[in-house]
Amino acid sequence: MPLDCTGADALDAEIARLRGLDLPGLQARWKALTGRKAPPHLSKHLLLRMLAYRVQADAWGDLDKATIRFLERLAAGGWAADAPVPLPARRALSPGTLLRREWQGVLHQVEVGEGGFSWNGATYRSLSEVARAITGTRWNGPRFFGLREGA
C-alpha cells in the first residue's frame, strides 16, 4: 500500500513517524507497504533505513534499470570497485516536477508541464529558454538547474 508522500514535507513527516516506531511497529509498517512479513533477522536500524528508502522510492521513483544491473553486478564481484560507473540514461522529467534555482539572491521555481516549462506566469519550450529569461545569457538549461554536471 504505497503512501501519498509526493511533497518533501509529507515525506519528511512519514520518515519522522517511522523513526518513532519500535521494531514491531516497523515490522507492521513493512507488511503494510510490501504485503510481506519483514525479514526476522533485521535490526530496528536497518529496517528503518529500508522503509525510509522504500517510501522515498515510491514517492520520487526508484533506481533506473541500468543502475540496478550495475549494482547487482558490482555486488556479485563482476566489476572491480574502481571501474568507471556507467552514466544513467537521461530520464524525462515528469509533469508537476518543481525545479528550483537561486540566481543572484532570488529563488526561481519552474514547474514541468506536459508541453513545456512554466516560470513567472509564462510557458517556455525548453529549460534553456527559462535559464536565458532568468539570467539574460545563454545557458544549458538542464545544467543551470543542476540536472547535469557543472551547474
TrEMBL record:
Pfam families: DUF2924
Domain of life: Bacteria
Protein name in UniProt: DUF2924 domain-containing protein
